[in-house]
Structures are given as structure tokens and as C-alpha cells.
Amino acid sequence: MTTAPAAPLVTMFLAQTRSELLMRWRVPAFSVTNLVLPIVFFTFFGLPVAHLVRGGVSIGAYLLASFGAYAVGNVMVYGFGIGVANERGMKIDRLMRASPLPPMVFMLAKVVTALVFAVVALVLLIAFGIVVGGIHQTPGVWATIITRLLAGSLPFIALGFAIGYWSGPHAAPALANLIYLPLSFASGLFVPLNQLPAFIQNLAPYLPSYHYAQLAWSALGAGREPLGVSLLWLAGYTALFLTLAVRSYRREERAKFA
Amino acid sequence: MAAVVELRGARKRFGAVEAVKGVDLAIGTGELVALLGPNGAGKTTSISLMLGLRRPTAGEARLFGLDPEDRRARSRCGVMLQESGTTGVLTVREIVDLFRAYYPSPLPAGRAIELAGLEAKTRARIGSLSGGERQRLYFALAVCGDPEALFLDEPTVGMDVEARRGVLESIRALSASGKTIVLTTHYLEEADQLAHRIVVIDHGVVIADATPHEIKSRIPSKRVNFSVETAVGEATFSGLPVRNLEVADHRVRLLSNEPETVLRALFERGVVLHDLEVTGADLEEAFLSMTRRA
């Protein structure tokens, strides 16, 4: 009898993704922060002005798109940042390293899990906006917003990894908040930019979240720059964050496994 | 036929400290080998080299004739490490199922859980397990893939007497079914009960590699302390099976495998002694005596 030399990658990937989903779902620090917080923020900042229309654009839909961008970035930065830092703190990496699971499959399962959570966060948020806020757009517009926000989330995955490998389990939550909340605010995700102080309006066009939200805003006809420009900025930030992540990862690799 | 594990002139340096100083070791199919040594002797580093968790500074490590990081080699190994953790929010059954998915032909989950003696905790969240139960869970994760080789770093640390007996029993059964098993321990007793072969490591070098019987005869297992009425010299002990003899004033301290023989001889030689103590020798001390002679 001959046995296969190794387990099929698909089997490993499915089992790993299932476990990652369970783990994230069962930790309120992730599930509540990822799924509920955007709705709470939208209730405070969006609902009171949801009925307004400016320049032919529904303010409700605009803010749903903003908080959608916030929500997906949140899933990525927190999930990878705090998740990776925690796993390093608990030394899960040592056991995984000795197992036959290839690191790429491990990473891929994490990315897919984060995307699933991002979809759920967006669908819950938009459903909330439709049902409670009475906000209406064609299904095509919502689908475009969801697709673009998922596809454009790469810089935030990279930022999450950078935080996760750079900081420890105790510092990561604080660091993620310190970076991500001001970034979102200054990019006009909580309050539209034209209502923010001038220096923030001048700063915003240099921030990743600003260009990321353009992907969603432009689906409503409220974009401030061509899609190509947004994508270029996002690609640049992905490269920057990925470089930081890889540097921290290599430093760790040398210390633990060299 | 390639050895399951092979270290050839393996060295590992961490900054100023050389944890492994040139180890040559080949472990064949079906062997049950205990790496025995005091804490900090280089056992864990040796296992890390075998598994590709660390790269040798010099020399070479092979696993099933392959680079230890090769997935085909890792798919044939089950591993239980010290200083590794896992998530607390999955249940025992869930994580065993996860690890089973990493292997081409795993055991049924129930069987792995049974080998670790965790049947009563199948549905418990990992976070709710005691230290000893968690250790047994790691054992379940090591065996669940039904791998050909098992690497167990201090497998019974933190277990109570009963759990320890159960896990040692499982290790024996797995060995009897043909698995190759490499374990580390700092208990001579544990190594003696289990292993076919004991490799004694101290200060990063192999100082003995033999059957438990041979090792035991070489490691002085008892410490003998007593006072003497009239001062004696080292000559009094000539020809007796003693090690690490210290004679200071009227106090005598020594290590021996045969304290009865030593004492009988001393009585015959007319030595009057009191405050006699015979205790199990501290393993660390015993190793030191071996290193000194080697």
C-alpha cells in the first residue's frame, strides 16, 4: 500500500479557514468590533443626516460608503494586527511551523477569513442603512461598492501584518487604534471632509483611507479623483506597508527560527 | 535505508552561547530514543535542529533523508514542543480535526483523543483546560496524523501521576506498533522505563549513547553522605565503586551505584560512621560526574 506523501492543500486550506472563522467569531474583541462597531458609528454619525441630498448625492448612501470603507479596513487592520501579534505572543507560530501546513496556506486562510468577515460587515451595515435609514440605491451600486472595497483592501491587510509583526500582543490593540482611528477620521470617513478643519482637508489626499474610500464614493458619483489615481495611491501604500511587514517578519524569523 | 533522523556534526550557536557543539546522531525506523540531560543541556535545540525549527550553524540535519523543512518530511512527523501555545477558543475536538487535516492518512479523531486520555474533555474549549490537560492535548495533536515518527519534547511535564502513566502507556503502545519515537526528558527514570536507547546530552555534546541498562550502570544513582569517627583519607575508598568523593574534616560525601557494596566494604575496613544518609542522586550532579570522566 502506498500512501500520499502529504495531505491535499485544498483539504488543509478548508480546515484552516473553518478554524480561523470559528476563532474570529468566538472572540468578541474581533466579532463585535468588526461587525457591530461600524453600525454603531453609522447610527451616531450617519442616521441623523441620512435623508439629506447634496449635489444629487444621497448623504445617507455617501456615509454608508464611508463607514463601509472604515469597516473593511477595520477588519483587516485589527484582524491581522492583533491576531498575528496574539499568535506570536502565545507561540502558536512554533507549533504551526513544525506542522506540515505550508505557511502560504496558513496566510491564505487568514486572508479569506478576513474577506468573509469584511463581506458580512458590509452586508450588515448596508442592510441596516436600507432598513433603518431608508437609504436606497440600485443593487448594482451596492454590489459595486462591496466589490471595490474588498478588492482595494490590500494595503490594510499589509498594514495589519506590519502591526502584527512589529508589535507585541499587548501593544498591538493600542497601536492599531492609534493608527487606524485617526487615519479614518482624517480621511473623512466619519464626517465628510468639507465639514472638517482646513488642515485636515489638506492632509487627507495623502492618506490611504482617503483614496480607499474614493473607490466607494465614486460608485455613487461622488468621487474626487479618477479611479486610476486612487488605485495608484493604494498600490503605493501597499508596497510601503508590505515592506514594513516583511522587514518585521524577517527580524522575527531570524530571532525565532534561524 | 535512510535513517529517520540524522544529525551530522550539528552545531548551533545563539550569540555567544553554543547550545549544541557538534552532535552526530542517527535514529533508525522503529527506535524509541530518549534524549536525556539536565535543563539547558541542548536537548530542545537538538530536537529543533532535527525538525528544521532551527538551522544548524554548522553541520547538517536530515529528516527521512530530506531537508527537515520539506513538507514531505514534515507530513511523516508528529510533534509536541515545549513553549508552544495554541488558541483557547476552539474545542479539543475542533483542533484535533484541524491537525488531522494536515496529514495524508490521519487517525480517527476519537482515537487520538483516547490515546491522550482526553475523552472527557472532547467538547471543552482549550482555554478551559488545566496545564496537564493542555499538555495531553499537545500529545493528541502530535499523534492525530498517524505519523511514522513522533518528536516529543518533555512530553510529561506538568502532568499528574495518573496522566503521566497514561501518556507513557500510549507512547509504549505507539512504539510497539512500529513508530519511531524521539523524546526528551530530564528524568532518568522516565527514559529508563520507556526507551530502547538513551542518548545523554550535556553542555551541547553527546556524552553517552547506549541502552538504558548500560547508561544506568554508568550514572551513579545514589548520593551517600556520612560522618566518620576518626579522620579517613581517600585511600580508604580505593577500589570501591564511588565517584565525586569529597572528604572534608569528618564529613564524607560521595556518589555511587552500589551504596550497599561501598558501605559493607567500609565496615570491613573498620570505618565507624554515623549520620548516614543515602538518597537518590541529583541527576545534574550525576551527569557532571559523567562529563568529568568522559
Written account of the structure:
- The complex is a heterodimer of chains A (about 260) and B (about 290).
- In chain A, about 75% of the residues lie in helices and about 0% in strands.
- With about 260 residues, chain A is mainly alpha-helical.
- A two-stranded antiparallel sheet of chain A has the order 1-2.
- The model of chain A has no long low-confidence stretch (mean pLDDT about 90).
- With about 290 residues, chain B is of the alpha/beta class.
- Chain B contains ten helices and 13 strands.
- In chain B, the strands form three sheets. Chain B has a six-stranded mixed beta sheet, sandwiched between helices. Chain B has a four-stranded antiparallel beta sheet with strand order 11-12-10-13, with no helix packed on it. Chain B has a three-stranded antiparallel beta sheet with strand order 2-1-4.
- The longest helix of chain B is centred in the middle third of the chain and has 16 residues, at about 160-175.
- Chain B is elongated, with a radius of gyration of 22 Å.
- The model of chain B has no long low-confidence stretch (mean pLDDT about 90).
- Chains A and B meet through helix 1 and helix 5 of A and helix 2 and helix 3 of B.
